[in-house]
Amino acid sequence: MTSTMIPVKIDYSDPTDLYEQVAGQIRRAIADGEAKPGERLPPARDLAAVMSVNTNTVLRALRVLRDEGLLEFRRGRGISVTAAPEHGAVQHRTRELVEFARINGYSIEELVDMVRAAR
């Protein structure tokens, strides 16, 4: 398993939260093939130093990407890319749909029925 440094560009004048910018840039690096499944990312503190942001900002971005299914955290082995962005995007959209359904009063079971009916 190899490690890759991801070129991340942060725009401090952009109103988008820094962690979202970091997550977006890493997502893009994965989509562009700069970071492939199986490759390890540098430690968060190294990424933070390169990007001139706080380590907690990078950690928050990495957790978002882990929750999307793009990264895997393994104790003693670091953080590695696990999937292509398409997989992560589907998981992300699924979470958004579940939240949207909840806000509008639908249960998970009702949502599942709607998804099955949409096939």
TrEMBL record:
<dbReference type="Pfam" id="PF00392">
    <property type="entry name" value="GntR"/>
</dbReference>
<feature type="domain" description="HTH gntR-type">
    <location>
        <begin position="16"/>
        <end position="84"/>
    </location>
</feature>
<dbReference type="InterPro" id="IPR000524">
    <property type="entry name" value="Tscrpt_reg_HTH_GntR"/>
</dbReference>
<keyword id="KW-0804">Transcription</keyword>
<dbReference type="InterPro" id="IPR036390">
    <property type="entry name" value="WH_DNA-bd_sf"/>
</dbReference>
<protein>
    <submittedName>
        <fullName>GntR family transcriptional regulator</fullName>
    </submittedName>
</protein>
<keyword id="KW-0805">Transcription regulation</keyword>
<keyword id="KW-0238">DNA-binding</keyword>
<dbReference type="InterPro" id="IPR036388">
    <property type="entry name" value="WH-like_DNA-bd_sf"/>
</dbReference>
